Records
---
Amino acid sequence: MMPGRVGAINLPTAATLFDTAIGHCAIAWRGATVIRFQLPEASPAATLARIARRRAGHLDEEVREEKPTGVIAEAIAAIHAHLAGELDDLRWIPLDTGEIPQFHRAVYDVTRAVDPGHTLSYGQVADRVGAPGAAQAVGQALGRNPIPLIIPCHRVLAADHALHGFSAPGGIDTKQRLLAIERTSGFGEPTLF
């Protein structure tokens, strides 16, 4: 279960860049809760710029680069290890999802419950959030996921197990790489059953 707003709304937003096995990632947080995560862009500077950009409707938000401590430092260490193949479900990392629309939060809750090495289809996620037939809406919600990897949208596939669209930098190649790191089998090729 992901916590919503945890009293961090009035705290400043901090961010940092860190190197991983797949390149430089970035994380933004308020207090002890993660609010955004960024997979590697074309350069470390582009990754940091993306995580630091102001969100729509938050013109007063200033993101400052800081050295992480406490649970945020622990989260970075776990992400680093996960991307190096020491798998962690990352569910213990506290998130602030209070500003995310309710349907998206429901989709993210279901998605976050998928263990590394496993996948669901967009339709299965729709069924689990109580919206049968809403696979396209699930895909749209996952395309707007502000905290990829920690909310593992890469673990949601088309019904035929094919890798369709992935809005993170690197697109389908990044999705395929993350699934390979997690030793996920049966993706990328349609099955007969």
Note: Helices lie at 44-52, 70-83, 102-112, 122-128, 135-143, 171-181.
---
Amino acid sequence: MKIKFIGGAGTVTGSKTLIETNGIRILVDCGLFQGLKALRDLNWHPLPVLPSTIDYVLLTHGHLDHCGWLPRLVAQGFTGKIYCTSPTKDVAKLVLLDSAKIQEEEANKANKEHYSKHEKAEPLYTLQQAEAVLPFFKIVPPDISTNIASDIIATYTSAGHIIGACTITLILEGKTLVFSGDIGRDDDVLMFPPTKPLLADYIFLESTYGNRLHPDLDAKKELENYINTTIEHKGTVIIPGFAVERAQSIMYLIWQLKTEGRIPNVPYILDTPMGASVLDIFLQNMQWHKLSANDCHEMCKMFKIVSEYEQTMRIIEDPQPKVIIAASGMATGGRILSYFEHYIGLEKTTVIMVGYQAEGTRGRRLLEGADEIKIYGNYYNVEAKIVQIEGLSAHGDQQDLVNWLSALKNVPKCIYLVHGENLPADELRIKIQDRYGFNCNVPLIGSEIEI
């Protein structure tokens, strides 16, 4: 059996792991590269095998860095099945259509304003190509073994992280392979703790926060302080929110603070059409999260939910203090950039980062203290206060990742640490070896192993 790390190795984006077994090809996740230009350029490169020769895609969850390359895969000849849970199918549909729409809009804007380096800017894929993916989805129930091919059994178990997210256990050639996907936190605001694996010969474990512990701080209290301080100075709070799960977590905490009378009566705005649609997915899948239907409805009443861009412009032009949650979470595209164009240069603005910021993204540059950022070909001075609430990340930290291995009844032959930058992955390798004595390896992108 051969396993090739096409993406999500040495980086937290572009997750793609190719399995070749007995003439069958399986791709675990099919994500988009984000951040550094060298990585983004890989989105335009062909896969090392023809998409038409891939039989199955197994999706761990619906985030863009795990499903965002599917339109390219289908456009280049893939005709197999895409296995995932029901909420993941719904989330992936929203994510892919939103991604295509943003890429089309940005290509049109680049051509209209002539800031592209290319003679004609093209979207990575179109809305039509994103829609072409949808018929290939095949839903699998959680916790029940599914025969995806002769002698290949897949079992999806909850990984926390976001709604529908799962770890995938594959049994093939008499071996048990466990693909963690993104592991959620043991104490997440909305999601249940991830299910730990019991048996595995080989584990492919994410390592996003492999070298960090989430601070033991009250995220709700931090949010309260930042909102109150900013509003007192008649400023605006802008929260780049991942439209799936983080936006809902932040809404939930802000709703709690407002209900408890701890934050002022100003406009609270959710400006991500996809984030609004995800709320419907939460209501349709109550067994996947901690929110009650009543909490969900009451929370939504508090927020002005924006769908049209004309509304975004009216909000931007309104000088009154307000709190805005807008996508995307790493500020790589979407509505958040329109807010940044207007507010990032104002000292009384506070930008609150609430999730992982990959290398090369605007979010990462802001956290690292950039004096200016580039948006749509123009540079903007950064005068806003940039802060981070690490306690709101949807990823488990080093301790969560190490503990996730604690229920294993056997010693795996190897644990491959993926979906992490090299330093965090290597520090997690040392931690796991120190605690369990397990053999660990940090694969390089493009590398291949035989098992």
Note: The chain has a mean pLDDT of 94.
---
Amino acid sequence: MNKNKGQGILEALLFAAGDEGISLQQITDVLDTTALQATELLEDLQEEYKKKSRGLSIIEVGGVFQMVTKKEHSEYLKKLVESSNSASLSQAALETLAIVAYKQPITRIEIEAIRGVKTDRSLQTLTAKALIKETGRAEGPGRPILYGTTKEFLDCFGLKTLKDLPPLDDVQEEALEQDEADLFFGLPS
């Protein structure tokens, strides 16, 4: 296989693999080549992306290769996300998401017991935005749906794992401090 054709196929593989990425072993298997040849193809393609004024680059994370956007274009990507039609999450949805993140797997009834209000709409919104998903069914009457967070949730909040969430005590302290600050801003001058 010639170099240009190999790079084109590799580029297509990286694009198709998306956030999951592709390992060197997968590349060698698909291209029916050696690890050395696959590595050379990767390095050559990485150099091509560096030379040209492109918006993408190829990185290795955790043993897999991914095609990612360049950091220098982040302000434009941020504008795109902010100007998109997808509305930001409501306070109710954010509260529900926080409960799911810290207490997962959790049922709708358990979430409602914590929040004190219905959460059907928030759960629908969070599921539609792929921030939470059904993770199974609880034992007991009616076998209620259990909810948990998704990989998209981790990506959205810049977390590698759920262990990267701030400890709940810190979150509670910050909320208390914020409430106290709000009280002070509400005082007449």
Note: Residues 179-189 have pLDDT under 50 and may be disordered.
---
Amino acid sequence: MTRIIEIPVNTMPASVLPKRAETPVIDIVPHKKWRVLDFNELWAYRELLAFLCWRDVKVRYKQTVLGGAWAILQPLMTMIVFSIFFAKLANLSSGRIPYPLFAFAGLLPWTFFANAISAAGQSVVGSERLISKVYFPRLIIPLASVGAGLVDFAVACGMLGVLMFAYGVFPSTSLVLAPVIVLGLTVAAAGVGSLLAALNVAYRDFRYVIPFLMQLWMFATPTIYMDSTSLASGVWSWILPLNPAFGLIANFRAVVLGGTLDTYSLAVSLAVSAAMFAVGTLYFSRVERGFADII
């Protein structure tokens, strides 16, 4: 017959007691009012960023007949309209490049840039339920909106390749700089979009300012007319590249269509894009802890 003897735990020697797994201690403390962007924290939530990007892509084309074809139709239809009014009626010259291809190569990156800023500017207000219930780096929300725009841009690049083949235009070796230029546009869109997203939480007027701002910005950028080397002369050649979309879009069209690269405008626009990203994310980090209370 087996006898079971109960021994109080507090009387057992420490060597006999089972070892407990150490639980990591996480200290949650308020951060400083102004802080530099924490890339390690963003990297830790990279799966969430990818999920939100894919969510935005699916929501955008949910219950649509054409689906992802709208990513191509938007710049394509705009190109057709501008080709009729500027190339046929106004006789606007585009140099050796056929005007429809010239316009599409400028409208393609601009459409990505404008849509990314508009979506990012409205993203935080549109995610109020998520922000008020779960903790994660809030900057992921506008970054996901910009990332979803990159998917549309990649799809529309296929149409650009078709038009280039149809017109017999081929890029030069400078095409290797295209990813750098697209990265600059992405960084600038993320910075401006994050700034507008933070401002839109506190001041809902910005929901009306954003579309108006993008309309004005488009005509300050060489999307449908000659590039920076033809437009900028004298002091304007030093000032216009301060608009990041000016130098980046003009040089994107140059490297894709085999034109002349403007290294000065490219360098200045890339620097301004980095500065915009720093300012936008810095302000976003400054005010993000009050989003759940205001939104």
Note: The chain has 13 helices and no strands.
